[in-house]
Structure formats: structure tokens, C-alpha cells
Amino acid sequence: MTTSLETRLVRAAALLGEWRDVLEERGVDGEVPRWAARRGWDGFLCALPDDDLAGCEVGGAAAVASLVGAPADLVALAREVAAVVAVSEASPPAGPAEALKGAPRRKSGQVAALVDLCRARGFAARRIVDVGSGAGHLTRALARALRVEAVGLERDEERVERARARTAGERGVQFEVVAVGATPVALRPTDLAVGLHACGALADALVALAARDRVSLVLVACCPQKVDRAARPAASRTGRVRALDVAREVLGAANSFEGSPDLEALATRIALRRILRARGVPLRQGDETNGLTPRVRRTLEAASARALALRGLAPASEQERKEALELARVEVGVARRRALPRRLLGSALEIALALDRARALEEAGAASDVVRLFPRALSPRNLAVVSRALAR
Ligand SMILES: C[S@@+](CC[C@H](N)C(=O)[O-])C[C@H]1O[C@@H](n2cnc3c(N)ncnc32)[C@H](O)[C@@H]1O
Fold first, then answer.
1. Whose CA is nearest to atom 8 of ligand 1?
2. Ligand 1: which residues within 6 Å by Cβ?
3. Is-contact 375 113, C-beta < 8 A?
4. How far apart are CA 325 and CA 159, in angstroms?
5. Which of 112, 124, 231, 368 could make an S-S bridge to 97, C-beta 3.0–4.6 Å?
6. 365 in a domain, yes or no?
7. In a structure prediction context, what are the per-residue pLDDT tens digits for the chain, which is 392 residues long?
8. CATH number of the domain within which 125 lies
9. Parent domain of 312
């Protein structure tokens, strides 16, 4: 018998509650996290050989659980995380993904997986409503594959213009500028709502909409920390009863991934923090890249110039940057080791959020599940809430 969504959510919430201190305390450069000191883990973590560390970063909870000589409570945590994060995988696509015009290869793969899932599940929709449709790749692909009309709802006007331009000549596909959640939207019972990498509050707004209007939904969420409120309230009754309200600064942990980290990017961030702190900037871990675009974050020169300018400070000299980066490259090794337990809990948090959304839809009368939709190589944010609205 398969375990019910409710049971899985209750188990995930219990795990997060039990290890709340690890999840809530993000490490500070060069300091032993309090949760590691309390449990006597720091010596073990910091002494992890490079191969073991790399194996745990790629293998996640199962790899941590099998570390020889690990503290018993760390092994217990890893085993429980491994059980909580186990979800079924969607069937792999029958053939190679069609390369979508103007889309990066990974986006084409994600779209193909979502289209295959909709076909395999036999959603008999008359219209696709793609929420947070961006460039509209998914909107167009689903309209073509399922031979139905489709509408993309997107709050960013420029993206809507670009999506419309790309769609010229295709019948039955439209894009509208709509901020879902802020603007009233009504779905029809014969709609299939979809969201691919619906970020932050949008994912919850979409779940609320699908539950209210009783439509089927396929949702892959991302960037859970992009919410306006100080905390994300649980979407389901089960989640609320189990106190699954999560503070915004903790939600970012659910963006963790299993894979080899980009060491140079990590060193750049640590070096950036060093430079800012040396200039007397009070800084919470993670805040150093606020207001910095992904392009600017790539080099310490650009990142530090921007971060300092944002605070009305002069750019860092070449010598300042060189020294900060050299020290940061050494600190990366320790930071990666100390980050392991929180990464585990981050993956459990990500699953808990997906289960909470699936359960909210189930409580509203749908048949729902959570599946891993595509391989991590296509995107680490690969969990899909799949929900079929049932007849009233
Ligand atoms: C990460 S992108 C994903 C775009 C597209 N679905 C894809 O997979 O390529 C998220 C998109 O959702 C849009 N968005 C965020 N919040 C929204 C809201 N409340 N209503 C409509 N669109 C929103 C953003 O502007 C952005 O284009």
C-alpha cells in the first residue's frame, strides 16, 4: 500500500520540527554553528576527507547515513531525511526532447518532461492556463501537444510582449499581463493549470486558485523564499496543525541541491562578505548578494563594486580583493563541511513544501501526488505537484 500524502507530510513536518535549530541557524563564516557545537559534530564534519565530502554533496542523505564513524544522531537525521525525500520518479521521456526555438537546452528538456507527464496522465483539458508563463515555451508546447487552446498569464509586460512575438502565427495561444494573486482570476472546470518554476508566492497563489476553482494542476515550484510576508503559512490544514509555517529566511534552505557546488562561486561570496564586513557593513549571511544580478555575482571585482556602491562605499582595491579571495578559498572547505546537515534538512523542507501543497489540493477534493519530474541535471528544482480535480 502506498503511504498517504497526509502521513508523509506529518512525517516531514515532525522531522523539520525536531531539527529546527539546524535549519534555522545559517552558518557564519569561521564560526562553529551552535547546533554543531551542542551535538559535538564539528570535529567529525571538519575532518571529513575530500572524497567523502564530495560523495555526500552528490549523494545527499543516503551518502551521509553511510559515513563511517559518523555521530549516531547525525546518521539518524540522514536516515530520516532519506526516507522523507523518497518520491517516485515520473517516467523518462520516450525520446530526446524537441529543441524549442529560442529556449536553452535545459528548458526544452523540462518542458518535454512536463508535456509527457500531462499526456501520460491523460488530463482531458479544454484549455491550458500556464501561470508565470515567462517566454511561453511551455504554453506553446502544451497547446501543440494536447491540441487545445492555451493562455499564458505573466505579470512582466516585457516577457508577455516577447512571448507574443514568438507566438505570431500560432492559433489558440495567447498571453495576458496578469499578476496572479493580486488580480482576480477565475479558472474553468475544464482547464488544466500549469506552472513551471512558479517562484515563491506564485506557487501558493496557484495552489489556492486550483483548489478554489477545482481544476487539475501540474506545478513545479522554485525560489520558495520569494515571499512578501515574514513567514510562509502552511497551505494545508494538516500543515497548519503540524506548525509547518516557515520563516522567510529559512525558506531559502529549500533551494539546496544534491550535486557538486561551484567552488569559485562560493569563494566569491565568502570574499564579498569579508570585504563588506571589513568596511563595517553589518551583514546577515546571505544578504551580501541582495540587489546583485547573477552576471554581476560572477566575479568578485564586479560583485564587490556593485555591493559597495549600493551602500555608498568606494570600490575595493585589487589588493583587497586578492587577499579576501585567497582567504575565502581556504574557508570554502570548512564551510562546505559545516553546510552538510543543513543541506539535508533543506531537501526535506523542499519536499515538505510540495507535500503541503499537494495535501491542500487533496483536502479540497482532488487526487494529488508529488513526483520527481526530470533529472537534476535539467534543474535541481524538479519536484512536481500533480493534482487531478475530481467531479463534485
Ligand atoms: C522562474 S520564471 C519561469 C518562467 C517559465 N514558466 C519557465 O519555466 O521558463 C517565473 C515567472 O513567473 C512570473 N511571475 C512571478 N510571480 C507572478 C505572478 N504573481 N503572476 C504572474 N506571473 C508571475 C515571473 O515574472 C517569471 O516570468
1. 196
2. 107, 132-135, 137-138, 153-156, 159, 178-181, 196-197, 199, 202, 205, 222
3. no
4. 37
5. 112
6. yes
7. 479 999 999 999 999 999 999 999 988 888 999 999 999 999 999 999 999 999 999 999 999 999 999 999 999 999 999 999 999 999 887 778 888 989 999 999 999 999 999 999 999 899 999 999 999 999 999 999 999 999 999 999 999 999 999 999 889 999 999 999 999 999 999 999 999 999 999 999 999 999 999 999 999 999 999 999 999 999 999 999 999 999 999 999 999 877 888 999 999 999 999 999 999 999 888 889 999 999 999 999 999 999 999 999 999 999 999 999 999 999 999 999 999 999 999 999 999 999 999 999 999 999 999 999 999 889 999 999 999 999 76
8. 3.40.50.150
9. 263-335
CA of 130 to the centre of ligand 1 (A): 9
The rounded Cα 301 to chain-centroid distance in angstroms is 28
Strand order in the sheet with 127-131: 88-89, 366-372, 383-389, 216-222, 191-199, 127-131, 149-154, 173-177
Q: Has residue 126 been placed in a domain?
A: yes
Whether 256 and 343 have beta carbons less than 8 Å apart is answered as yes
How many domains does one find in the chain? 2
* Claim to verify: residue 330 and residue 361 sit in the same structural domain: no
| Residue 226 Cα to ligand 1 middle (Å) | 12
Residues 114 and 217 in one domain: yes
